[in-house]
Amino acid sequence: MMKKIKEIIPGLVVSIGVGVLSIFIGQFVPKLGAATIAIFLGMIVGNLFLNQEIFQKGYKFSETDLLSYSIVLLGGTLSVSTLMELGIGGITFIVCQMTVTIVGALFIGKKLGFGENFRFMMASGNAVCGSSAIAATAPVIDADDKEKGIAITIVNVTGIFLMFLLPLIAKVLYSHETMQTSALIGGTLQSVGQVVASGAMVNESVKDLSTIFKIVRVILLVVVVLVFGHLKNKNNEEIIEEEAIDVKKGKVKIPWYVIGFFVTCALFSLGIISNDVSMLCKTISNKLEIFALAAIGLKVNVKDLIKQGKAVSLYGLFVGLLQIVSAVILIMIFL
Predict the structure, then answer these.
(1) Low-confidence ranges of the chain (pLDDT < 70)
(2) Distance of alpha carbon 120 from alpha carbon 14, whole angstroms
(3) Is residue 185 part of a domain?
(4) What DSSP character marks residue 128?
């Protein structure tokens, strides 16, 4: 345990330092905001000075764990009525968007000549929750580590570009109207961190609602993994039965922060979390979020973005374009 803590500390300190500096700078440029500054400042610092291996585990902890705690605390600031804002239309939009992404990613990958395992991981990563979905899908379809690593890289690269692009598209199409902008960001972006970062570039309301859209997608991870297992092993009844048992046993499970989010949301809705405590939750959540976004920026390796192979880059590009177009069309239909 002490060894693990020592490995985390260097990157954690840098992430917090960049986050604190971003909060300070944000006071002078409030239109840009601390969250946006944290991402860009992290990218600059990470690529120019502090991209050594010693910092990477701390960056990883800050990006994942701090963001998870932030999301749990966010639940303590939202009531059930806020969650209900998604409505039937919002839920239907998410299901349709995920379906289009999965089918499209499988089709595009096949046309580009990629193997079945890689296509399944690209489909789950883009449709659900990036690296986490790929990690959950890989063992079910017997994918090797190399395929998993490439899929995680290209999905994250696609998400990074979309993270900056979607707020601009939402500005042109929706004038940053909260529901439609949140659906575009929360229904499209690959990772939870990218959703929070992109939503924060617009405003606080969009960040919160787009996170809710994203959480609904994450909840559906279990369904996606089980379906992919069936598609991969459709001629082997024993394997299919084993996958179903794994899901029932919780080996493929919803991330803990999603459960925590709904627990704190329920406590706030019931009045167990008072308004004063809710305000404190909001403050701490925002700070943790900025530290996590700084870590996301620090982890972006520009060299990795440049050196991706042509075919893999095209795969990410086409899937990203498909997600944007389908999201815009489905928002017109359902929202």
Answers:
(1) 232-254, 304-309
(2) 36
(3) yes
(4) I
